[in-house]
Design a protein that fits this description.
The protein is α/β, with parallel strands linked by helices and about 450 residues long. It has 2 domains: about 350 residues, Alpha-Beta Barrel (TIM Barrel), CATH 3.20.20.150; about 55 residues, no CATH class. The protein is built from 17 helices and 12 strands. An 8-stranded parallel β-barrel has the order 3-4-5-6-8-10-11-12, surrounded by 4 helices. The longest helix has 26 residues. The model has no long low-confidence stretch (mean pLDDT about 95). The protein binds D-xylulose and cobalt (II) ion. Cobalt (II) ion binds next to loops.
Length: about 450
């Protein structure tokens, strides 16, 4: 099967045209060369196109099948179809001029009848990726293995009751990690879609958590063995496909990593839609990961306020994004992480160029919000107010308490001796919200 001669209508890479650009396909805010806080916008945002939603998903939902009818999904030779898909993928990377992409093993290459065949397929497609990456200068933000779609994983991969399934998953991860390493991947991701349960009636939770701890430890060991420099990232999600997932949210993942001694090598890949499914905001999850020292990377997308499932829409909400970037910039920005578009166009968006519009629109929304966040941070409006709110803790008594220099009795006696009642102060929420609106 050959790649379609021309899949997208658009033929020239999208360029920066400024806010008044007449073309609908121009970057209005994403000027990749613009320097902010000493770095180019491209280096701050580190956008990545994801392979699975953009090139593997066919537009199906639980009630209906394929709507996109991509030519590379209609053939008889799976490897030829994978090669055709790679042509279109790298054409989109070129048109968007993105610095990174991401993929699962099975997105890139078809599964064979055996693990050996699958690994061979993956390596053959990785050869093609390697050549195209050298020519186009696009890099790999992260690779991962799909340990959730095949029926062998219906009861989990690492947390499966059958150790043979655990071993199969190890085989898949070894190949995916080694390919990620070969392609210069910056991180390696583990998302545990089936690492959870449907019912506790058939689940030994203690045992399954220990299995998961063992599995992640094995991945970390192998990472060191092959000299993979990037972190392993686990991706929190509370549910879907399972009723309960062990990587529920940032707090739960942190507890898990602490328990199994993994915080040094493993960080988190945080996704907006997963955050809201867990009952948190995206900003909350990022702020907590930064506070706990496990912030890694982001899957940038957007859930629907009215739907309780993972809709994976393209992020377009400027106000939410501005607060997210304010949080990230405050914490020093990304190191190995970036913004992976774990987002899919709606199933009615059947024109090939809808893929371009989606990415350009979201890249611009992120850039605009990022610029607003950087101005907000420079002005210190939020950070100064926060500093002021906690100023008492920077005083001598506050520091002495935190340094362990006061006992419970010391504190009690001090209050008993004095007659001053602590004076409540306003939290000034509406004032702060109005301040944010001046920037966004
Ligand atoms: C699923 C999800 C995955 C991971 C990678 O909800 O987010 O696409 O990002 O396996
Ligand atoms: Co994701």
């Amino acid at each position: 099967m050959n790649a379609p001669a021309r899949f997208f209508e658009t033929t020239a890479p999208i360029s920066f045209g400024g806010p008044q650009a007449p073309s609908p396909l121009a970057f209005r805010w994403y000027d990749k060369h613009r320097i902010v806080h000493g770095k180019r916008l491209e280096e701050h945002l580190r956008f990545a196109v994801c392979y699975w939603h953009s090139f593997c998903w066919v537009g199906s939902d639980p009630f209906g099948g394929e709507t996109f009818l991509r030519p590379w999904h209609h053939g008889t030779d799976p490897m030829a179809m994978a090669r055709a898909k790679a042509e279109v993928a790298f054409e989109l990377f070129r048109l968007l001029d993105v610095p990174f992409f991401t993929f699962h093993d099975v997105d890139a290459a078809p599964e064979g009848k055996t693990l050996a065949e699958s690994v061979q397929n993956l390596n053959a497609i990785a050869d093609i990726f390697e050549a195209k990456m050298a020519a186009q200068k696009v890099r790999l933000l992260w690779g991962t293995a799909n340990l959730f779609s095949h029926r062998r994983y219906m009861a989990g991969a690492a947390t499966n009751p059958d150790p043979q399934v655990f071993a199969y998953a190890a085989g898949q991860v070894r190949a995916a990690l080694e390919v990620t390493h070969r392609l210069g991947g910056q991180n390696y991701v583990l998302w545990g879609g089936r690492e959870g349960y449907e019912t506790l009636l058939n689940t030994d939770m203690k045992r399954e958590l220990d299995q998961l701890g063992r599995f992640v430890s094995l991945v970390v060991e192998h990472k060191h063995k092959i000299g993979f420099p990037g972190p392993i990232l686990i991706e929190p999600k509370p549910k879907e496909p399972t009723k309960h997932q062990y990587d529920f949210d940032v707090a739960t993942c942190y507890g898990f990593l602490e328990r199994y001694g993994l915080t040094k090598d493993v960080k988190l890949n945080i996704e907006q839609n997963h955050a809201i499914l867990a009952g948190h905001s995206f900003q909350h999850e990022i702020a907590l990961a930064q506070a706990l020292g496990v912030f890694g990377s982001l899957d940038i997308n957007r859930g629907d306020d009215l739907l309780g499932w993972d809709t994976d829409q393209f992020a377009m909400n400027g106000q939410e994004l501005a607060l997210v970037f304010h949080e990230i910039l405050k914490g020093g920005g990304f190191t190995t992480g970036g913004l992976n578009f774990d987002a899919k166009i709606r199933r009615q968006s059947i024109d090939p160029d809808d893929l371009i519009h989606a990415h350009v629109g979201s890249m611009d929304a992120c850039a605009r919000a990022f610029l607003a966040a950087s101005v907000m941070l420079d002005s210190g409006v939020l950070t100064d107010a926060l500093k002021e709110r906690y100023a008492g803790w920077d005083g001598s008594e506050g520091r002495a308490i935190l340094a362990g220099e006061r006992s419970l009795a010391d504190l009690a006696d001090r209050v008993l001796r004095s007659s001053t009642e602590p004076q409540p102060r306003s939290g000034r929420q509406e004032f702060l919200e109005s301040l944010v609106n001046r920037y966004v």
